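Hypothesis: this fold can be encoded by more than one sequence.
Test: take the structure tokens below, design a sequence, compare later.
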């Protein structure tokens, strides 16, 4: 073995990178085109449930992130967090985010502050990538893949319309689909539930992947374990790849039971925030697939740790950051850094995903998305496009 000799120039010394200081963090709430959630209290155009975050620095480099909460809450959280992040080194995302978490735990950890730290953390990873010239996935430890399959997430519809909607997205190139929320379960009609799933399977064809999301984290979900067990049996007949949020989001004992008896894999976890919240779900074996949302859970730093924890428990990780192009971009970078990530959520027909980037995401011939290889998140916001969905894009982008 050739050992480097002492003093030999085996590796050229790199000049150290000076600190890049945070000078401002701004939020831009998105309005007007929030995708319908299928919630019992449906989202209105004047509601803001997503916000873009910009972290500005003294190096003139700006990082971007995304937060899944009401924009007013994100703006208030930034005011609270400001003394903690101003002047911090933007090249240390995990340390800075942990500082924000640990200094605010008494103000309601897991809520608005955690959501907002998520957007800051994503933006800090973006900055670290831009300064080092590396995509975030490389910074997270490696590149397992160059592309990943997006599953097209669509609201449940009445059967005839469901068939048409999924067929339309199939024609656009998607080969994996998730249908969720809407009348499924809420109409209290198991025959209708089955008819919707059958119509979706017919619309996408036998060769496409199909997943079903009951959306039981909705307000006043009417069903319990027996409904979920019966529905899981039905889904098996349509080759459904997982059953998501089949139970109320805190019903961990029922999730544990359902996972053991269900013939289809059980998925959930989108409403959990903070890595610590995932510990009982993993140690107790409540899920086959865990779906943290990078724009809520604490950002890339937190999601990376949850995904590795899940991996070591034999649980599959699939990201839920579908809500803006920046959430998707973060999920794509995470998707390259883990051995077994074969899917990423991608909502069909959202202007916040398709309509704010200089180069929108496009599917390849097999229905996959390339994982950007440019520095940082590898995507670029188009200010003119973004201005359609937020009233003051200038103050977001102003250093
Ligand atoms: Mg869901």
């Amino acid at each position: 073995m050739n050992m480097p000799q002492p003093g030999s120039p085996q590796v050229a010394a790199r000049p150290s990178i000076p600190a890049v200081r945070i000078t401002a963090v701004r939020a831009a709430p998105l309005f007007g085109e929030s995708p319908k959630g299928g919630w019992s209290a449906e989202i209105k155009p004047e509601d803001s449930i997503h916000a873009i975050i910009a972290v500005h620095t003294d190096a003139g480099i700006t990082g971007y992130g995304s937060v899944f909460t009401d924009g007013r809450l994100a703006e208030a959280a930034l005011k609270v967090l400001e003394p903690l992040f101003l002047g911090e080194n933007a090249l240390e995302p995990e340390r800075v985010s942990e500082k924000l978490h640990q200094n605010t735990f008494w103000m309601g950890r897991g809520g608005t502050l955690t959501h907002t730290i998520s957007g800051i953390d994503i933006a800090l990873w973006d900055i670290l990538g831009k300064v080092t010239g590396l995509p975030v996935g490389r910074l997270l430890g490696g590149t397992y893949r160059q592309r990943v399959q997006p599953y097209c997430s669509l609201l449940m519809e009445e059967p005839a319309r469901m068939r048409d909607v999924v067929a339309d997205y199939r024609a656009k190139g998607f080969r994996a689909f998730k249908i969720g929320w809407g009348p499924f379960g809420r109409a209290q009609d198991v025959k209708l539930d089955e008819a919707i799933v059958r119509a979706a399977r017919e619309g996408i064809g036998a060769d496409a992947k199909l997943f079903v999301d009951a959306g039981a984290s909705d307000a006043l979900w009417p069903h319990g374990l027996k409904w979920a067990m019966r529905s899981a049996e039905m889904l098996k007949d349509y080759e459904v790849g997982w059953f998501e949020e089949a139970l109320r989001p805190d019903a961990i004992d029922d999730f544990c039971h359902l996972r053991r008896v269900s013939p289809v894999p059980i998925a959930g976890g989108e409403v959990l925030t903070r890595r610590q919240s995932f510990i009982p779900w993993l140690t107790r074996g409540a899920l086959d697939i865990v779906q943290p949302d990078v724009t809520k859970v604490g950002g890339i730093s937190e999601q990376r740790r949850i995904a590795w924890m899940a991996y070591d428990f034999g649980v599959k990780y699939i990201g839920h950051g579908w809500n803006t192009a920046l959430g998707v971009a973060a999920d794509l970078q995470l998707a390259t850094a883990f051995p077994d990530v074969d899917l990423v959520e991608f909502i069909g027909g959202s202007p916040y995903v398709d309509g704010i980037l200089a180069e929108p995401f496009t599917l390849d011939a097999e229905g996959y998305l390339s994982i950007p290889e440019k520095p940082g998140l590898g995507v670029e916001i188009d200010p003119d496009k973004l201005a359609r969905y937020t009233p003051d894009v200038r103050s977001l982008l102003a250093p």
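The pocket of magnesium ion is lined by residues 180, 213, 244-245, 270 (CB under 6 Å). The CA atoms of residues 217 and 249 lie 5 Å apart.
Hypothesis status: open.
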